């Protein structure tokens, strides 16, 4: 068994017994009344934990609709107070002593302030276990053949604490490493995208025939495929056991973004990787639960989390099919009061039956993120959604 699938203990087994039971569920996509009640119990424990340790969250909870009575079921989640993700860009708020911080990471935005997130041992290890369980569900852990990695991310350097880089380095533990190349090379004075290095690596990987795993930002793989075409390089045939897992979005390159179906088709055409082994993963520094695409490329909500969609006009919760802001809820985090976070992402949530992949949990589509392009804000995108619904 992979080391990251092993047991992890909450910091206080008495105060967080339901959190422990919920996070110990090994199957990523479990549904049912018992699970819903357990989730509500775990959220009550999480709220009490943070209220006792964070004066900031204690005030929020006291002023919320959840102050007078605990949650009884997931139908009550809309009563929870939430912290906007942008709050963490300007404030460092923790629910643990400084000495218990095991990891400090920042979000991977290219401009402006970045979110500062802090992890204690439980939050870090359980977050890693969540990712490992999702990968294991799809059979992406345990392969014995060494893998050539192309990380579409930042080459490590001392002091680099980007959450996306930490995650991609961690994902390299799921299959033995044959070699690693980085799209963003450390030059000694920052990082620079190295398209020729990426092209050379892919050609070498095709010649070697070993499985390839491409992880990280989709933008730099897209730019690499562009460069291959510009150079007249014919399609490569990477091992069919290769895997592409994206994360982090297009960030400062939203103006050059390629639609997922087009990008996935280009990856298949130019690299030979099967469509079902090309997936996008959604996550954030402020909320480290992994939302992975199913084989039909829908982002499903795992059992350790729930998602609400809130109106861009009123912030009232919306039903399936209505676009609004994403609110992610999960009791897994003990280090920061980020158990209920409102994102700047504009999403639509759907029932599992609308996917058809067989997973029993809801899924969502991301319509846009804050700073969709250099000249287009999330507020503009929200205004367009409002206009569309009028």
TrEMBL record:
Q: Pfam families of this UniProt entry?
A: LuxE (PF04443)
InterPro entries linked: ANL_N_sf (IPR042099), LuxE (IPR007534)
Report the protein name in the record: Acyl-protein synthase
**SUPFAM superfamilies attached to this UniProt entry:** Acetyl-CoA synthetase-like
Q: Extract the Gene3D superfamilies matched here.
A: N-terminal domain of ligase-like
Every Acyl-protein synthetase LuxE domain range: 77-382
Q: Provide the organism lineage as a comma list.
A: Bacteria, Bacillati, Actinomycetota, Actinomycetes, Kitasatosporales
């Amino acid at each position: 068994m992979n080391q990251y699938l092993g047991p992890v203990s909450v910091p206080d087994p008495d105060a967080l017994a339901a959190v422990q039971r919920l996070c110990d569920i090994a199957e990523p996509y479990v549904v049912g009344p018992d699970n819903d009640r357990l989730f509500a119990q775990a959220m009550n424990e999480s709220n009490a934990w943070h209220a006792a340790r964070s004066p900031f969250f204690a005030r929020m909870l006291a002023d919320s609709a959840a102050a007078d009575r605990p949650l009884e079921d997931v139908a009550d989640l809309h009563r929870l107070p939430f912290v906007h993700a942008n709050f963490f860009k300007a404030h460092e708020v923790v629910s643990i002593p400084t000495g218990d911080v095991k990891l400090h990471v920042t979000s991977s935005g290219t401009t402006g302030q970045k979110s500062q997130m802090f992890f204690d041992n439980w939050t870090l290890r359980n977050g890693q276990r969540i990712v490992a369980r999702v990968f294991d569900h799809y059979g992406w852990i345990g392969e014995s053949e060494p893998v050539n990695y192309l990380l579409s991310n930042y080459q490590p350097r001392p002091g680099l604490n980007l959450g996306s880089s930490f995650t991609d380095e961690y994902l390299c533990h799921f299959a033995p490493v044959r070699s690693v190349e980085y799209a963003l090379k450390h030059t000694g004075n920052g990082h620079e995208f190295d398209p020729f290095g990426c092209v050379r690596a892919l050609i070498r990987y095709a010649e070697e025939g070993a499985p390839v795993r491409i992880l990280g930002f989709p933008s730099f793989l897209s730019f690499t495929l562009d460069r291959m075409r510009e150079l007249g390089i014919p399609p490569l045939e990477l091992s069919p056991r290769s895997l592409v897992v994206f994360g982090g979005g297009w960030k400062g390159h939203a103006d050059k973004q390629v639609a997922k179906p087009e990008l996935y088709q280009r990856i298949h055409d130019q690299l030979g990787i099967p469509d079902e082994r090309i997936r996008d993963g959604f996550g954030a520094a402020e909320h480290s639960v992994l939302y992975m695409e199913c084989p039909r490329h829908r982002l499903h909500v795992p059992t350790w989390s729930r998602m609400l969609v809130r109106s861009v006009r009123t912030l009232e919760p919306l039903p399936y099919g209505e676009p609004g802001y994403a609110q992610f809820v999960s009791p897994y985090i003990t280090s920061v009061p980020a158990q209920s976070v409102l994102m700047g992402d504009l999403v639509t949530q759907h029932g599992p039956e609308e996917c058809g992949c067989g997973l029993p949990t809801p899924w969502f589509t991301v319509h846009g993120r804050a700073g969709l392009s250099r000249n287009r804000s999330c507020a503009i995108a929200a205004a367009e959604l409002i206009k569309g619904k009028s």
